[in-house]
Amino acid sequence: MISRHRLRRLALAAAVAVVALAGGGCATQPVAVHDAAIATRPTAHSVLRSMAIDRSLEDRILALDPEQVTADDVRDTLAKAPAPRIILLHGGIYPVHLMMESAGRFLTGMGYPEERIRHPGDGRWSHSPYEDSAQIAGLIAWYYERDGLRPMLIGHSQGGIQAIKVLYELAGRLDNPIRVWNPLLDDAEERTSILDPLTGTERSVVGLTVSYVSVVGAGGAALLLPNQWSMIGKLRTIPDAVDEFTAFAIGLDFVAWTLPGDQEAVNFRRDGNTLVRGVMLPAWYNHVFVPDTEGLAKDPATRVWIDAYRAADAGVATPPADAGAGVLWAADVWYSVKKHWTIEAQRLIRARRAVADRLK
After folding, report:
1. Per-residue pLDDT tens for 111-159?
2. What pLDDT is attached to residue 311?
3. Is 82 left (phi over 0), alpha (psi -120 to 50) or beta?
4. Where do the H-state alpha helices sit in the chain?
5. What is the pTM of this model?
6. What residues contact 66, with CB distance under 8 A and at least 6 apart?
7. Is 3 a member of any domain?
8. Residue 220: domain span
9. What is the pLDDT of residues 297-332, one digit of tens each?
10. What sign does the dihedral 90-212-144-134 (CA atoms) show?
11. What does the CA dihedral 294, 300, 303, 305 come to, rounded to 10 degrees?
C-alpha cells in the first residue's frame, strides 16, 4: 500500500510537470466570521494589562538565552509563553501549498502552538503569493496590535519573493498608506494606523517591522510572472523592516536558476540594520519538496539533532544519515523561530513590567 506521504509527493510531482510555472494559486476555504471580528479595538496598554503570566514564568522567560534555546526550554517555558504569529507563504504552483502545510506541522511537532500558525479566519496553513502584499502587511499590523508580538514570515519559492515584497510594503516603498487587514472578516478596516500595544501610541502600518523572515528558492523563473515584476531589481536588497533575514538557496535549482558554486544565490544585502544571512543547501535537495519536513519532528534521533542545531552550524553541520532532504533547512528555521519567539516574549514582558512600574 502506498503511504499518504508518498501519494502526496507523487501528486505534487505530477502537478508540477503539468502546470509548471504558469499555474495559479490554490483556492482558499470560505472565511468563517467570528464574533471577535467586530470586537472593539485594543485600548492603550490593554494587551499588556490582559497578560495572564505569573511572575515566576516571566522570570524564567527573561532568563532564557535566545541563542541557546533547548528542547526543555521549549517544553517547560516557551510553550507556556505568548507566541508570535508565523505567516507561511507557499509557492505558486498548485498543490505546492501542501509543502508549507507540512512545514507548519513540522513546527508544531517541535513545540510551536498550531493556533499561532493557522489562519484565524479559515484555518489555512499558508498564504498564496497571489494575495496582495499590502493586504499581508495590513494583516501583520492587525496581529501585532492584538498580540504585542511581531510576526515572523517564512516563504517558499514564489512565496519567498512575496515575503520580501511584504517587507517593501512595510517600509513604505510600494503602497502607502496601507490599511489594516482583518483576517476574521477577510476585509480591510477603514484605518491605516494601529495603537501600538507596547507604547500605547498611534502609529502607521507603514513603518512597522517584523522579527524574522526566511526565504528558500526565491527568485529565478518566478520573477518572470507579472505579479512579481515589481520585485525585479529589488529582490536581493532587504529593506529595514525586519530584524533578521535568512536566504536559503539550493546548490542546483533549475526553478530559482541556481547553479553549483553560485554564491550570488545567497548574496542578499541589507538596506539598514537588518541582520542578513545566506545559507546554501545541498545540490541534491529538490526545489519543490524542501519544506516537506513534517516527518522530521517524529523521528527521535533527527529531532534531537535539530534541537541541538545552532545558526553557526550552517554549512558545516552533518545531520543524521537517514534524516532525508530538507533537514538542514528545517533545523536552521527552527533555530531562528525559537530565537525570535524568545526575544518577542521577553520584549512583551519587559514592556508590561515597565508600564506596571509607571502606574504604581
Report:
1. 999 999 999 999 999 999 999 999 999 999 999 999 999 999 999 999 9
2. 92
3. beta
4. 4-19, 46-49, 55-63, 71-76, 97-110, 133-147, 158-170, 300-308, 327-358
5. 0.89
6. 338, 339, 340, 342, 343, 346
7. no
8. 34-358
9. 999 999 999 999 999 888 888 898 888 889 999 999
10. negative
11. -140
**Integer Cα distance of 23 and 120 in angstroms:** 27
Least Cα distance to 87 among 187, 231, 213 occurs for 213
Is the residue at 237 inside a domain? yes
SS3 336: helix
Q: Are 241 and 209 in contact (CB under 8 A)?
A: yes
Which stretches of 274-326 are DSSP H helices?
300-308
Burial call 48-76: b when 16+ CB within 10 Å, e when fewer = beeeebeeebbebbeebeeeebeeebbee
**CB within 8 A of 233, min separation 6: which ones?**
none
| Grid cell for residue 225 | 510572472
Cell numbers at 292, concatenated: 516537506
135 located within any domain: yes
Q: Determine, yes or no, domain membership for 21.
A: no
What is the total count of domains within the chain? 1
Which amino acid is located at 295 in the chain? G
Q: Contact, 211 vs 246, CB < 8 A?
A: no
State the cell numbers at 29.
476555504
